[in-house]
Amino acid sequence: MMNRPRVLLADDHSIVLAGLRRLMESDFDLVGTVEDGRALLEAAARLKPDIIMLDISMPLLNGIEAARQLRKIVPQSKIIFLTMHADVGYVKEAFRVGASGYLIKRSAASELATAIHEVMKGRTYVTPLVTKDMMESFLGPAAQPEKLPKPLTSRQREVLQLVAEGRSNKEIAAILEVSTKTVEFHKYNLMQALGIHTTAELTQYAMRHGYI
User: Structure pTM?
Assistant: First the structure.
């Protein structure tokens, strides 16, 4: 008998995690559940699951940034996004940072198992609920080039999210295990790079570009 895929779940809503557990525990080995992006990195490094199923919107570290880091920490683990974001831009970014699957939360429950089995075979899976929009985006005559956010370093993206969540420099320093001076340095460089002058503008930028 084949070993059951070992799955780690990450979502910041405990009700969603409980529902996913009930849906999946008969077919898969659920090795853990976490509710923020930093807990996900720690759990993934410790548990080394076959599948990591995560949301995009998570506190402390969003799913896109977590996926970037997971590719280095656990390159053998397959990443499947399960999120409310059906926008094509999120789908493209998810696959760009190393996802193998993409589901949205109004997908049929049966899609969870289908997606996991597909990515375990080395394939990719995208819910049919977004593939139509993706095709129109790629092929439609009215498709406009995307306005991409300015490139930021990994640490700048982390600081940006934490600033936008309303955390103080001292709190950010504790979370990232750096000095407050280092946080101030990254925050200053962020503002310079983005042409932004206030924390409120940083927060607006983060919301506009999906960091929170």
Answer: 0.76
